[in-house]
Write a structure and sequence with these properties.
Helices cover 53% and strands 0% of the residues. The chain has 3 helices and no strands. The longest helix has 15 residues.
């Protein structure tokens, strides 16, 4: 999807080039915010099983 929510139809190569170009256009602050939003969106894919690092009592950033 683009910024306006439209679905893009492109080859994998074109998609990869676009994603790299978009990433390089971001300044360091924008990259960090993008990373944090990505981490937040990943929370939607939680499973019912605890993460293996929780069982090992490892440090986890949430």
């Amino acid at each position: 999807m683009d910024d306006k929510g439209n679905i893009l139809f492109e080859t994998k190569e074109d998609s990869n080039q676009r994603r790299i170009r978009e990433a390089l256009e971001r300044n360091p602050h924008e990259r960090f915010v993008f990373f944090l939003r990505l981490c937040e969106e990943m929370q939607l894919f939680n499973s019912n099983e605890p993460h293996p690092n929780r069982l090992k009592d490892n440090f986890i950033v949430e």
